[in-house]
Amino acid sequence: MIQRNMAELAGAIVQISAMGLPPEVKVSVVDQLQGMQEAAVKVQSGAPIGVLNTAKRRAVDYVATLQNSQEASATTCQQLIDLLARKAASYRRRLGR
Question: Which terms does the record give in the GO molecular function aspect (predicted)?
Fold first, then answer.
């Protein structure tokens, strides 16, 4: 699972890079994705699924702050939220939850 997660994370980084975000915002979004990935690994090791749900919620909340501070457009923020939702769903499927 970890190798697949790393490959998916690399793909997500490419997608994020194409969105034209400032470098510091890109790094923060990638940090949020890594947090979701780490949560998925914890769930795989026996932690409750709520750990992954919390990581996703935290990431979506971060994207909302980007939109509120106007560091990213509404369209870009929606693309980021969609990306986060797809990653969380992918992790859940692989975890069988």
Answer: ATP binding
Residue 25 has pLDDT above 80, yes or no: yes
Q: How far apart are CA 64 and CA 92, in angstroms?
A: 23
Distance CA 48, CA 36 (A): 14
Count H helices, E strands: the chain? Answer: 4, 0
Number of separate domains in the chain: 1
- CB-based burial of residue 13 (10 Å sphere; 0-12 exposed, 13-18 middle, 19+ buried)? middle
Q: How far apart are CA 27 and CA 13, in angstroms?
A: 9
Give the pTM. 0.83
